[in-house]
Amino acid sequence: MERIVITHSPDETEEVGVGLASHVRDGDVVALVGELGAGKTTFVKGLARGLFVKDVILSPSFLLARSYPGRLPFHHLDAYRITSPHELSEVGLLELLPPADGVTAVEWADRIPDLIPRGAIWVTLEHAGEDRRRITLRR
Do strands 133-138 and 74-78 pair parallel, antiparallel, or not at all (unpaired)? Predict the structure, then answer.
């Protein structure tokens, strides 16, 4: 499956995440790729909203991961500061790839490609103008 969507605002980018939420299953990993400011966290906020997460989604850059209750448990992992896959193992986060329960969204997944399980949903976000984004979803 591959789908390309062009969005014209952060709200539209978030809505694409909401739409994906209806297709994810327990144990899925959503691997996000894109440069700084491409909309990864905005997309993740939509995915969480679509999974009925009530908490405010914050970037886990300094904590590496946050978990939230929702329709399915939602785990948000940020690999931006990861310099070695062993770091995830040392802090016990490998259990989220894939999660035993729920869905894990991984920002900067291209920094840990060998840890992303087969069958993950890859979401690539690219700048396509000032507020426009080209979002490619593939499984």
Answer: unpaired
Cα distance from N-terminal residue to C-terminal residue, the chain? 6
d(CA 116, CA 97): 6
CATH code, 25-115 = 3.40.50.300
Query: Measured at the alpha carbon of residue 101, what is the angle toward residues 99 and 105, in degrees to the nearest 5?
Result: 50
pTM above 0.85, yes or no: yes
* CA quadruple 23, 39, 88, 66: dihedral, nearest 10: -70
- pLDDT tens for the chain, 139 residues long, are 799 999 999 999 999 999 999 999 999 999 999 999 999 999 999 999 999 999 888 776 655 788 899 999 999 998 888 877 777 777 777 788 888 899 999 999 999 998 999 999 999 999 998 889 999 999 9
Three-state DSSP class for residue 40:
helix
Ranges of each domain in the chain:
25-115
In angstroms, the Cα distances linking 51 to 8, 21, 72 are 23, 6, 7
User: Tokens representing 103?
Assistant: 């869905």
